[in-house]
Amino acid sequence: MTFNDLQLLRNIQQALAEEGYEVPTPIQQQAIPIIKEGIDLVGCAQTGTGKTAAYLLPLLQTLKYAQGNEARCLILVPTKELVVQVERSLAVLATYTDLRWVALFGGIGPKAQIEKLQSGVDLIVATPGRFLELYSKGEIAVKKIKHIVLDECDRMMDMGFWPQLREVQEKLPQ
């Protein structure tokens, strides 16, 4: 199987080809078609098997292009380091799209993150704490969010994020 067999948009396939990706990993082969269908999925695979691309590729395909100013996708991760890693993957995979995203995490002042939100985004990659902080300040509109990813959900639970995840869930549209 190739990425072409997964019927990804041409611009996404071009980004993959330029990065030298030819054959999807098992998690990508299994997850991408399911996510493209809009079906909820729990995926488990070892580190380094391409789990991030397994959810980013079909999300990029679904979102297709920049639209409006409010986010349509939320990706929650447990740490700043993982926010940065997912953002790097987005920068590569979304090279030939006009999709906009913001990385939200603590440890730095929120001013630049708020400015990016105000300029319009399609995807938010965030730690739960920073997401809730900026939401409570009225900086994040959630009514257009249709897709949510809990990356390393097991780790978030181990780290005690369950109350924050529940709070985020209560704020999102059904």
Task: Describe what is shown at a glance.
Strand 2, helix 5 and strand 3 (123-126) form a beta-alpha-beta unit. The protein is an alpha/beta fold. It has helices at 10-18, 26-36, 51-63, 80-93, 111-119, 128-136, 153-158, 162-171, and strands at residues 73-76, 101-104, 123-126, 147-150.
Give the helices and strands, then pairings.
Layout: H1 10-18, H2 26-36, H3 51-63, E1 73-76, H4 80-93, E2 101-104, H5 111-119, E3 123-126, H6 128-136, E4 147-150, H7 153-158, H8 162-171
Parallel strand pairs: 1-3, 1-4, 2-3
Report on this model:
The chain has 174 residues and is α/β, with parallel strands linked by helices. It contains eight helices and four strands, in the order αααβαβαβαβαα. The chain has helices at residues 10-18, 26-36, 51-63, 80-93, 111-119, 128-136, 153-158, 162-171, and strands at 73-76, 101-104, 123-126, 147-150. A four-stranded parallel sheet has the order 2-3-1-4. α2 (26-36) runs parallel beside α3 (51-63). The chain is globular and about 45 Å long. The termini are far apart. The mean pLDDT is 94.
